[in-house]
Target: Glyoxalase
Amino acid sequence: MEARDNHVLEIRGEALGTISNQSSIEEIFQNRTLRPILKLQNDLFVAVFINHAVKQKGVFFSLSPEKKLAYIENVIQRDIKFRNSLKGMIIGLFTVTEYNEYIQNSSNLNKRMMNMLIERLKSQIQLIVIE
Model:
Protein backbone atom coordinates (compact mmCIF):
# COMPACT_ATOMS: atom_id res chain seq x y z
CA MET A 1 0.00 0.00 0.00
CA GLU A 2 2.82 2.39 0.84
CA ALA A 3 4.42 2.04 -2.59
CA ARG A 4 1.16 3.07 -4.29
CA ASP A 5 0.74 6.06 -2.00
CA ASN A 6 4.32 7.19 -2.64
CA HIS A 7 3.81 6.93 -6.40
CA VAL A 8 0.55 8.86 -6.22
CA LEU A 9 2.15 11.66 -4.21
CA GLU A 10 5.12 11.77 -6.59
CA ILE A 11 2.88 12.05 -9.65
CA ARG A 12 0.68 14.75 -8.10
CA GLY A 13 3.48 16.99 -6.95
CA GLU A 14 3.53 19.63 -4.24
CA ALA A 15 0.63 21.32 -2.47
CA LEU A 16 -0.91 24.28 -4.27
CA GLY A 17 -2.14 27.32 -2.39
CA THR A 18 -1.25 28.71 0.98
CA ILE A 19 -1.29 26.60 4.12
CA SER A 20 -0.84 28.41 7.41
CA ASN A 21 -1.36 27.76 11.11
CA GLN A 22 -4.81 29.33 10.75
CA SER A 23 -5.83 27.04 7.86
CA SER A 24 -8.80 24.78 8.58
CA ILE A 25 -8.51 21.03 8.13
CA GLU A 26 -10.66 21.30 4.98
CA GLU A 27 -8.48 24.08 3.57
CA ILE A 28 -5.33 22.04 4.19
CA PHE A 29 -6.91 19.02 2.49
CA GLN A 30 -7.98 21.22 -0.40
CA ASN A 31 -4.51 22.65 -0.96
CA ARG A 32 -2.49 19.49 -0.29
CA THR A 33 -4.74 17.00 -2.01
CA LEU A 34 -7.55 18.40 -4.14
CA ARG A 35 -5.75 21.19 -6.01
CA PRO A 36 -2.81 19.00 -7.15
CA ILE A 37 -5.23 16.28 -8.30
CA LEU A 38 -7.42 18.75 -10.19
CA LYS A 39 -4.35 20.19 -11.88
CA LEU A 40 -3.00 16.74 -12.78
CA GLN A 41 -6.34 15.54 -14.13
CA ASN A 42 -7.22 18.80 -15.93
CA ASP A 43 -6.92 17.57 -19.52
CA LEU A 44 -8.91 14.46 -18.65
CA PHE A 45 -11.68 16.55 -17.04
CA VAL A 46 -11.95 18.70 -20.18
CA ALA A 47 -12.11 15.58 -22.40
CA VAL A 48 -14.70 13.92 -20.15
CA PHE A 49 -16.83 17.08 -20.14
CA ILE A 50 -16.68 17.34 -23.94
CA ASN A 51 -17.70 13.69 -24.26
CA HIS A 52 -20.59 14.22 -21.85
CA ALA A 53 -21.76 17.33 -23.73
CA VAL A 54 -21.64 15.46 -27.05
CA LYS A 55 -23.70 12.61 -25.57
CA GLN A 56 -26.28 15.19 -24.46
CA LYS A 57 -27.02 15.97 -28.13
CA GLY A 58 -24.31 18.63 -28.33
CA VAL A 59 -26.60 21.40 -27.07
CA PHE A 60 -23.73 22.90 -25.06
CA PHE A 61 -21.74 23.81 -28.17
CA SER A 62 -24.47 26.06 -29.61
CA LEU A 63 -25.01 28.05 -26.40
CA SER A 64 -23.84 31.60 -25.76
CA PRO A 65 -20.77 31.95 -23.53
CA GLU A 66 -22.92 32.98 -20.53
CA LYS A 67 -25.22 29.99 -20.98
CA LYS A 68 -22.23 27.67 -21.36
CA LEU A 69 -21.04 28.77 -17.91
CA ALA A 70 -24.47 28.05 -16.44
CA TYR A 71 -24.60 24.70 -18.26
CA ILE A 72 -21.28 23.59 -16.75
CA GLU A 73 -22.53 24.40 -13.26
CA ASN A 74 -25.93 22.80 -13.83
CA VAL A 75 -24.70 19.55 -15.31
CA ILE A 76 -22.16 18.97 -12.55
CA GLN A 77 -24.64 19.85 -9.79
CA ARG A 78 -27.66 17.98 -11.16
CA ASP A 79 -26.40 14.97 -13.11
CA ILE A 80 -25.64 12.62 -10.24
CA LYS A 81 -24.03 9.88 -12.37
CA PHE A 82 -21.76 12.37 -14.12
CA ARG A 83 -20.83 14.06 -10.83
CA ASN A 84 -20.04 10.70 -9.23
CA SER A 85 -17.85 9.80 -12.19
CA LEU A 86 -15.90 13.06 -11.79
CA LYS A 87 -15.65 12.49 -8.05
CA GLY A 88 -14.24 9.00 -8.68
CA MET A 89 -11.56 10.46 -10.96
CA ILE A 90 -10.44 12.61 -8.02
CA ILE A 91 -10.82 10.08 -5.20
CA GLY A 92 -8.90 7.50 -7.24
CA LEU A 93 -5.78 9.63 -6.75
CA PHE A 94 -6.08 9.86 -2.96
CA THR A 95 -3.62 8.05 -0.76
CA VAL A 96 -5.12 5.69 1.81
CA THR A 97 -4.45 8.28 4.54
CA GLU A 98 -6.14 11.00 2.48
CA TYR A 99 -9.11 8.74 1.85
CA ASN A 100 -9.46 8.17 5.59
CA GLU A 101 -9.37 11.94 6.13
CA TYR A 102 -11.88 12.43 3.31
CA ILE A 103 -14.48 10.03 4.72
CA GLN A 104 -14.47 11.94 8.02
CA ASN A 105 -15.89 15.00 6.26
CA SER A 106 -16.92 13.81 2.80
CA SER A 107 -19.98 16.03 2.45
CA ASN A 108 -18.10 19.32 2.83
CA LEU A 109 -15.11 18.06 0.86
CA ASN A 110 -17.39 16.91 -1.99
CA LYS A 111 -18.83 20.43 -2.19
CA ARG A 112 -15.34 21.93 -2.31
CA MET A 113 -14.25 19.38 -4.90
CA MET A 114 -17.16 20.04 -7.25
CA ASN A 115 -17.02 23.82 -6.83
CA MET A 116 -13.32 23.81 -7.65
CA LEU A 117 -13.91 21.60 -10.68
CA ILE A 118 -16.77 23.81 -11.90
CA GLU A 119 -14.58 26.90 -11.65
CA ARG A 120 -11.71 25.11 -13.38
CA LEU A 121 -13.92 24.11 -16.33
CA LYS A 122 -15.51 27.55 -16.54
CA SER A 123 -12.08 29.18 -16.69
CA GLN A 124 -11.19 26.96 -19.66
CA ILE A 125 -14.40 27.33 -21.63
CA GLN A 126 -12.39 28.11 -24.77
CA LEU A 127 -10.95 24.56 -24.65
CA ILE A 128 -14.36 22.91 -24.54
CA VAL A 129 -15.00 22.48 -28.25
CA ILE A 130 -15.73 19.58 -30.59
CA GLU A 131 -12.60 18.66 -32.52
Residues 2-127 form one domain. The chain has a mean pLDDT of 93.
